[in-house]
């Protein structure tokens, strides 16, 4: 595959992943925002000292499940972000090569 075809593939990928990448970011951010609320809700369910309640809240099944969902959401978001960055670099490389050809630096 030549660089022009690869750049076209990159542009297509970027265009097709705008919405899913935004959804992945939105999910990640939403789960991060909910983290404190879930922890506080679990904290209020327990009795004892503040430290004991905090530890019980952090050990709760609901909080652990939330952290796992957040971990998966971060993974999905980072995967989109990294792939989109790679595709953007391919396009930049194609632009640079074309600019060099126009100035006669590449034949």
Explained architecture:
By secondary structure, the protein is mostly helical. It is built from 4 helices and no strands. Helix 2 packs antiparallel against helix 4 (61-103). The two termini are 18 Å apart. The mean pLDDT is 95.
Share in helix = over 70%
**What pattern of helices and strands is seen along the backbone?**
HHHH
Q: What summary fits the major beta sheet? A: none
Gyration radius from CA atoms, angstroms: 23 Å
Instruction: Write down the overall mean pLDDT.
Output: 95
Strand content: under 5%
The CA-CA distance between the termini, in Å, is 18 Å
Tally the helices.
Answer: 4
Q: Which structural class best describes the helix and strand composition?
A: mainly alpha
Strand tally: 0
| Gross geometry | rod-shaped
Low-confidence stretches: none
Quaternary state of the chains: single chain
Please outline the helices and strands.
Layout: H1 3-16, H2 18-44, H3 50-59, H4 61-103
Keywords:
single chain; 107 residues; mainly alpha; 4 helices; rod-shaped
Brief summary:
This protein has four helices and no strands. The chain has helices spanning 3-16, 18-44, 50-59, 61-103. The two termini are 18 Å apart.
């Amino acid at each position: 595959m030549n660089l022009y075809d690869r750049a076209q593939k990159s542009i297509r990928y970027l265009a097709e992943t705008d919405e899913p990448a935004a959804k992945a970011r939105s999910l990640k951010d939403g789960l991060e925002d909910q983290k404190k609320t879930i922890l506080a809700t679990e904290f209020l369910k327990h009795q004892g000292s503040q430290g004991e309640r905090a530890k019980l809240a952090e050990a709760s099944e609901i909080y652990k499940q939330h952290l796992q969902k957040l971990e998966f959401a971060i993974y999905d978001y980072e995967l989109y972000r990294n792939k989109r960055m790679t595709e953007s670099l391919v396009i930049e490389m194609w632009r640079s090569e074309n600019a060099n050809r126009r100035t006669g630096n590449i034949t």
